[in-house]
Each structure stands twice: as C-alpha cells, then as structure tokens.
Design brief:
With 503 residues, the protein is mainly alpha-helical. It contains 22 helices and four strands. Strands 1-2-4-3 form a four-stranded mixed beta sheet, sandwiched between helices.
C-alpha cells in the first residue's frame, strides 16, 4: 500500500528527467536550432532523392526496381536498399515538409544519445565521466548529422550492442531488429558480425585466462545463436539474398570507395579535430584496459572500429557512440581497482567514485517521461518558424528557378552534389547526370564523370558523346571557363552557381 508521503514523490519523479533524458533533449535542441538543423541536416543532397523515393512508394507506385532519375541510365535495374528509411522520410515530408524531416532526424539523433547512456550503465560506466563524455559524443557525431538513413543505422547499432551487453534476451527481438535494419540501412550486416565477435571472445577467453570453461561455452553458444538469428532475419527484405550480394559488392569495390569523399580519412587539422582525436584516444585507452579486465569482446570492438575510423571519416561517429561507453566502463573499473596509490590520492579517488555512484543512484530514480510531450510541443511550435530547406549557399536554389523556365527535354550537366537536390526540386522530372547513388552508377561511370567534371584529358569527347544542352555548375568549377571557351553562354549566374547553354 502506497503512503501519502511517497505518492507525491513518485508523481514528481515522472516530471524529473534523468541525465540520459536531459542530454537527449539538449542534443535535440542543439541539432535542430543551434546547429540550424533545418538547413544543415540537408547539406548532403542525397536527402532529396530519398524523400522523393519514399513519397513514390507511399503513393502506391511500389518498391522501385528500375531507375527513374538518371539522364543516362534511366530504366536500369536499381536496388533501393534503404527503402524503409525513404518511406519514413517521405511520410514526414508529406506531413510537414522539410521541417518535419529535420524533426524526424533530430528525434532519432536524440534517441541515439539516450541509448548511448544506457550502454554506459550496462558497461558499468561512471556517472560523471558519462556526462563529461557527452560533449565528445556531440562533437564527433555532428560531422555526420545528415538527413540520411545512416542515422537510423546508428540507432539500431547502439541498441543492438546494448542488447548484447546483457548476455541474455529474447531472440524474437534480435530477429525484429535485424529485419528492420535490413530494410532501413545497408549496415545491417553488422548485427550478425557483432554477435559473432562476442561469441568468439567467449570461445577464446578460457584459452587465455583461467576461467570456467563451461560457463564461457554456454555464453558463446548463446551469442552464436544470436548471430545466426540475426543473419537469417536480414533475409526478410524485398530483395532477399540479392541485397547482401549487392552491399558486399559495393563495399568491396575499392576503386569506387576510394573516390567517395565520406569514405576517406578525416583531416585532423580541420575544425573540431582535437575533440575527435581525444575521442579516439579515450576509445583506445578503453580497449587497452579491457584486455586487463578480460573483456575481450570490448577490446576487439575497439580495435575494429578505431581501425575503420582511421581509414574512413564515416566511422568516427560510431567510435563516439559505441566505444566511449565501453571505455567508460573500463576506466571506471580501473579506477576502482587501482592499487599502490598514495593514500591521499586513493582517498580522493574513492570520494569521487562514491559521489558519482550516489548521483547515479539519485539519477536512476528519476523518470521524467511526462516531459516528452512538452518537448514535442515546443519543437512543433518552433520548427514552422524556421526556414527549412537545402542551404542556399551550397545548392543552386536561385538558379533552379531559372532552370524551371527551360524546356523539359534539355540534357543537363550537373555534378553529383546537385543531383539529389535537382531530383527533389523537380520531383524527378528533370533527369540528372549523376547523384549520390554511387552503388547504382558504379566505378567506371564515376571515372567518366570525374574526367568530365574535372576537365581531364578526353573530357571534350565525353561532353560530345553525352550531348548535353545545358550545364548547372558551382562557380568554383574550372569546367565553367572551359565550356565558355567552347562557346557556351551563361544564362544565369549568382554567388553559388552558373547556368550555361550550349551554342
């Protein structure tokens, strides 16, 4: 029976958010308003074709099997491997335009932050260290805050690892997460890979340390069953095994991957490079400490993701999402077990750990979920006032108005960075030379594209063969003066782009 004194306290707890919810709400408002998410989330034009594809599916046109956007490859078979995310984006766009799409991704990024804290607690992380690391999470993650399906992949990835950390659970949940993942983002293959890493670590642990072999084998069998379940569930997609073959063919195409910017190494001299370097150092420290604590799976994850992140900037946010919580757990355990310290240092360290544990105890009693409707209402009220759209200083927003005046049958030369925007702006009616679907176009097509765009030897033959009638190019491109030397005439020009016409 509940007493009158405890009832108000329990009631108030539902309005008191814990640290995870507080930082998640901060992340949401930073993303949408301080980060100007209603524009910066659309700084990659791929958002455009994702939205239009989702809307086409929602109109009942079915899952696209052939391209309808390309000027040169129209009708070619196309694997729309992220169709589930496209549908979510299309539905949000129909509900409230680009502002609603930005809100969708803002809430997903905030949800990633909330699950990130749950992984801290599952790994035995320190309360104060988790709070301090949240700044690194934001500075590492925002380099890839984009309205694109990979953000859903982040959410599923960190949720799956949180599930694995529990060492038990219902397999139907594994199957559900894996099936959803396979229809939302191409990183779905990570589910069975991660489970296999945990299984192999428990096979290897008794070979390295003096541990209960039977207990380790039992855990290894469970993780192996998770891996098998996850792998089987990823087949629940419209393409079946063909999807897996397509994804691996794309990722193993070194010639193609080497030409895609986001798969290149991060420039640590760029703005924010210091925070990202610190994130990698902490993740590496956590991996080293994990070996001494017999957490072999955590060590293997640290080696894997740090190696990938050093080669590809795209993996850096995953280091922040996945490895920082595991590093917190390793550092916290190392601090608690540190021996041989001077008494004064040990006393202060114990006081710090005790204070943090007490804060975590208070934090665990807070619920705060009744604050969420207020947050949703505030975002819904503020977003319409924001000027949502593709950034006009990066995309030909003004030039597109001039493009509308031209006949529908023109053959437009435009770079891949404009492709998705043109698809969005003209709802697919203006066919594009190239867009962000590099897996669809392939390595040979990309080489021909770069030869023309970068004015390399043979570019004029390429120009004539494709019979372009108009060109829409960023002003910084050397192709503009090269075309003008051939007699092409500028129809329009502003601070961002120029629209040219063939003589």
């Amino acid at each position: 029976m509940q007493t009158w004194t405890s009832a108000p306290q329990d009631w108030i707890a539902w309005f008191m958010p814990d640290l995870a919810l507080i930082v998640s709400m901060i992340t949401l408002f930073v993303c949408l308003f301080l980060f100007d998410g209603t524009r910066t989330l659309f700084r990659d034009s791929d958002s455009g074709w994702h939205i239009r594809t989702g809307e086409a599916i929602l109109r009942g046109e079915g899952l696209p099997s052939r391209d309808s956007y390309s000027l040169t490859r129209n009708g070619t078979p196309w694997v729309a491997w992220e169709w589930g995310a496209d549908v979510l984006m299309g539905a949000a766009h129909q509900a409230g335009g680009l502002a609603a799409v930005a809100a969708l991704y803002g809430f997903v990024i905030a949800a990633c932050t909330w699950i990130w804290f749950q992984l801290h607690w599952a790994a035995g992380g320190n309360f104060l260290l988790a709070g301090a690391m949240s700044t690194l999470l934001l500075s590492t993650g925002n380099i890839h805050w984009l309205a694109r399906p990979h953000v859903f992949g982040w959410l599923l990835l960190i949720g799956f690892v949180s599930y694995l950390e529990k060492s038990s659970g219902r397999l139907w949940l594994v199957a559900l997460m894996s099936a959803v993942w396979a229809n939302i983002h191409a990183s779905f293959f990570l589910a069975p890979v991660l489970a296999a890493i945990y299984a192999l670590s428990h096979v290897a642990r008794p070979l390295i340390w003096n541990l209960d072999r039977e207990d380790e084998r039992r855990k290894a069998r469970w993780y192996a069953l998770v891996a098998i379940t996850a792998a089987a569930a990823t087949l629940v997609n419209p393409y079946g095994l063909k999807l897996h073959a397509h994804v691996f063919q794309y990722l193993l195409n070194a010639e193609l991957i080497s030409r895609i910017g986001e798969f290149q190494s991060f420039n640590f001299h760029a703005e924010g490079g210091t925070q990202i370097l610190l994130t990698l150092l902490i993740a590496g420290l956590g991996g080293v400490l994990a070996v001494g604590q017999r957490k072999l799976a955590h060590f293997l994850l640290a080696v894997l993701w740090i190696a990938i992140a050093l080669r590809s900037a795209r993996a850096l946010p995953v280091v922040g999402l996945l490895l920082l919580p595991l590093a917190n757990g390793a550092v916290s355990e190392a601090l608690a077990r540190a021996r041989g310290l001077r008494p004064q240092i040990r006393k202060r360290l114990d006081a710090f750990l005790e204070y943090s544990a007490n804060l975590r105890g208070i934090d665990a009693s807070a619920r705060g979920w009744l604050v969420l409707p207020v947050v949703v209402a505030v975002v819904a009220a503020l977003l319409p006032a924001a000027h949502a759209g593709f950034p006009p200083d990066q995309f030909p927003v003004a030039a597109a108005a001039e493009l509308e005046k031209l006949p529908s049958g023109i053959r437009l030369l435009a770079p891949d960075m404009y492709g998705g925007y043109i698809i969005y702006r003209f709802n697919g009616t203006r066919k594009v030379f190239f867009d962000g679907r590099s897996d669809f176009y392939g390595g040979e097509y990309m080489k021909d594209y770069l030869r023309l765009i970068e004015v390399r030897p043979g570019w004029q033959q390429q120009l004539q063969a494709l019979a372009f009638t108009h060109a829409l190019l960023p002003n910084r491109y050397s192709l503009i003066p090269a075309l003008e030397q051939l007699g092409w005439k500028k129809l329009y020009s502003d601070d961002v782009a120029s629209l040219l016409e063939r003589p």
